[in-house]
Amino acid sequence: MKKVDKKTLLRVWDYLKFYKMKFFGSILLTIAMTILNVLEPFVIGFAITEIGRNVSDMLKGVEGAGINYDYLAKVLLIYFIRALLYQATNLYSQLFMTDVVQEAMHDLRKDLSDKLNRLPIAYFDRNQFGDILSKVTNDVDSIANALQQSLLQVLNAVLGITFALIMMFTISWKLAVAMVVLIPVASVLSQKITQLSQPYFRGQAKYLGQLNGFVQESLTGFSIIKLYGKEEDVYADFHSINDSLKKNGFKAAFISGLLSPAVALVTNASYILIAVLGILQAIAGAMTIGNVQAMVQYVWQVNQPISTITQLSAIIQSAASSIQRVFDLLDEEEEMQGAVKASLPKEIRGDVTFENVSFSYDKENPLIKNFNINVKSGETVAIVGPTGAGKTTMINLLMRFYEVDSGAIKIDGHDTKELTRADLRSQFGMVLQDAWLYKDTITGNIRFGKLDATFEEVVDAATTANVHHFIQTLGAGYDTVINQEASNISLGQKQLLTIARAFIADPKILILDEATSSVDTRLEALIQKAMKRIMQGRTSFVIAHRLSTIRDADLILVMDQGEIIEHGKHAELLERKGFYYDLYTSQFKNESE
């Protein structure tokens, strides 16, 4: 997995800087809080020194000796005011930073969402949906938790160490020097352990993304897994990924967990050293007893922040890996817009031309070579051929999901590479084999093709698509909510709704990709009837395995290995008794058997 880049980590500031007033306000309050915390042993030291002096005078029999309650009351009042200010600065520093982090993460999620919409189809072909989802959810949450929980604590720790050392030098530079010598020991230990654990944190983030992707795919195809009895195979694959996640997670947690006892060892050693040296100086009269206890407390205030940083190490390292993954996604190459040299008029004819188009997913294995067709407005073009012949690829090129390697695709004479993708795709309507609907009402799903459509237009589209009667049989009619998996309606009904969605968009060019391949004969006839209605007056590209559905096409293109090997009308192709004839007769032979 890619190593975490320090420059990438600093890019988080690009999101925090928009809220820099509250951010720096939180920093200033944290500084004030740290100073107030550092003053605690110093203030208490005055009280302890005074009590020690009073007790010593009483033991010596000094006349009028006793506890100086007035002085102690003043010291305690100062201590109480300091405590109130400390809690107030702590509260508001956390409040401001929480607001900054949540706003910044809101912006980051928004940018990720926008980025996903600008990525090419090829990116989603290469990456698991679950892993992409993990970057947008788990990784962003990891960054938010680290910033919210760790940023101020680390700052507080660094400032606490600095101010505590300043106070120690103020009280006794000799003891302070002894303390300074021990700090690098803890620092070196922390650095070495962090270097050992970081690769495992990166691996943990990687395998967590893979696990999310695998679970998402397994749940989507759960019924198929059950049908073919592949539960054990799926479990084995899950176990392999889960085991890798466990091993990386254990090593990351265990190695980073060594930081706390390692630093504790240095802390205990420093306690003993400072306590012994302080007592010796107090006996020699070089220090007051109050300053000795202050120095011991400052040892805690130096070592406790170091311990805090080590405890936060796991969160920080996990967030560093998440930052790298998130910004890697944001840095992915987007769909090339190219130079916009032309724009389509609001009303186009719908002429489509492929001129010597060549394309390959893999440069070493050409798929489409010197592809040429000329489709006139309103014509229906059927594309047939065996699996892998290049039928769907041709549609992907027409929609500019992929860019052609050479040649040109033209709409009404305009090269699609000179148009914006939004301008180009606004002229198309698509009905695919996989009928995609989302969790919303039936009205909302149909209106997806035209967001400002009136209810009357929705009903008209549903009627044209032969789905109006079915909708009326539902309890809530057009207000029926389709669930997240669209499993509360049948596949054929989903297909009819997607046809209604395509119709309401009123496209000039229509693409029907295996729209009837997964339905029964009765529904096929119903869908065919709906398709004929919406195809009227539109240039249509129909990909079909059931050759009986494309008999009336104006032009049939027979493809094999990326090339058009035959073309013509249905009757003409049958008369030639070529490749199409073999496909057609073999299909009907299989169906009759």
TrEMBL record:
PROSITE patterns: ABC_TM1F, ABC_TRANSPORTER_1, ABC_TRANSPORTER_2
Record-annotated membrane-spanning stretches: 21-48, 68-85, 151-169
Bilayer disposition of the protein: Multi-pass membrane protein
All copies of domain ABC transmembrane type-1, residue ranges: 24-318
Principal cellular location given in the protein's record: membrane
Domain ABC transporter, first and last residues per copy: 352-586
Entry keyword set: ATP-binding, Cell membrane, Membrane, Nucleotide-binding, Transmembrane, Transmembrane helix, Transport
Record keyword Chloroplast present: no
Protein name: Abc transporter
